[in-house]
Design goal:
The structure is a single chain. The chain has 241 residues and is an all-alpha fold. It has 12 helices and no strands. Helix 2 crosses helix 6.
C-alpha cells in the first residue's frame, strides 16, 4: 500500500492548503486571565468554520477517486469512503489543535495591543449578557454559510456608519439585527465603550485567522494520513468478509 502514502503526500494535500481549521477548546484545565478568557469568547463563533469531519471526508473522497480499485470497491459495496474518513479524522484533529495552539499567542498579542486588561474585564461583562449571547449565535450561524465565510475573509475593514455596521464589522459576517436589538446594542456601546475598541482587534486578527486556516500539513501529517488510509481500507475489507 505504498501508493496510499504517496497519495496522501502529493495528490491532494501538497497541492491544496487546508481550507479551514476546526476549533476546539484549548484552555479547559487552567484558570484564564481576562485577556485569554476574552480571546476564547471572541473566537468561539469560529469553532465550526470547517469541521474536522468535513476535511477527513474530503481527503477520503479524493483518495478513493484517485485509485480505480478503490473506486470500484466503493461502487459495489459502499462504505470504503466512510472507513477511510473515520481513520483519518484523528490526524486532522491533532493538526487542528496544534495549529490553533501555534497561532493563539499572535491573536493574544493582537488583543493586548487593542485594549487594556481592565477593558478586557469590561468586555467579558458584556459577553455575559443575553444580547451578546444572541450576537454570538448569529455570528456562528452566519459562519456556517460558505458565502459568509468568503465575504468575511475578503473584508479587512469598513466604516462603522451605524450600529448594524459596527456589529457586522465586529463579527466579520453579515448580522441582521431587529430594531429592538439595535437599540440594545446602542445602549451596550454606551455602557461598554470597549466594544468600539475591539474593532481594532477584529482588523488585526483577520490576517492571522486567514493564515491559520490556510496552514499546511507537514510531512509527519502526510505520513499519518497514509497510515490512516491503510487502516481504513483494512477495516473496510474486514467488514466485507
Amino acid at each position: 500500500m505504498k501508493w496510499i502514502a504517496y497519495l496522501a503526500a502529493s495528490l491532494w494535500l501538497v497541492a491544496c492548503p487546508v481550507a479551514g481549521i476546526a476549533q476546539a477548546p484549548l484552555e479547559s484545565e487552567r484558570v484564564l486571565g481576562p485577556y485569554e478568557e476574552l480571546l476564547s469568547v471572541l473566537m468561539a463563533p469560529f469553532e465550526d468554520e470547517i469541521p474536522v469531519e468535513q476535511m477527513a471526508l474530503e481527503f477520503s473522497r479524493q483518495a478513493v477517486a484517485s485509485h480505480p480499485d478503490l473506486e470500484r470497491a466503493e461502487a459495489v459495496r459502499p462504505g470504503l469512503t466512510v472507513a477511510i474518513a473515520e481513520a483519518a479524522k484523528p490526524v486532522f484533529t491533532r493538526f487542528s489543535a496544534r495549529t490553533r495552539a501555534a497561532y493563539r499567542p499572535r491573536l493574544l498579542e493582537a488583543l493586548k495591543s487593542a485594549i487594556s486588561e481592565g477593558e478586557a474585564v469590561s468586555a467579558l461583562e458584556f459577553y455575559q449578557t443575553e444580547l451578546a449571547r444572541r450576537l454570538q449565535q448569529y455570528i456562528a450561524e452566519g459562519l456556517r454559510n460558505a458565502e459568509a465565510v468568503s465575504e468575511a475573509e475578503a473584508t479587512a475593514a469598513f466604516p462603522a456608519r451605524d450600529v448594524s455596521d459596527l456589529a457586522r464589522h465586529t463579527a466579520l459576517v453579515p448580522v441582521s439585527l431587529s430594531p429592538e436589538e439595535e437599540r440594545a446594542l446602542e445602549e451596550s456601546l454606551r455602557r461598554f465603550p470597549v466594544l468600539v475598541k475591539l474593532r481594532g482587534f477584529t482588523a488585526a486578527a483577520l490576517p492571522i485567522r486567514i493564515a491559520m486556516v490556510n496552514e499546511r500539513l507537514n510531512a509527519d501529517d502526510y505520513a499519518a494520513l497514509g497510515r490512516a488510509a491503510e487502516q481504513g481500507i483494512a477495516r473496510y475489507r474486514s467488514q466485507q468478509l
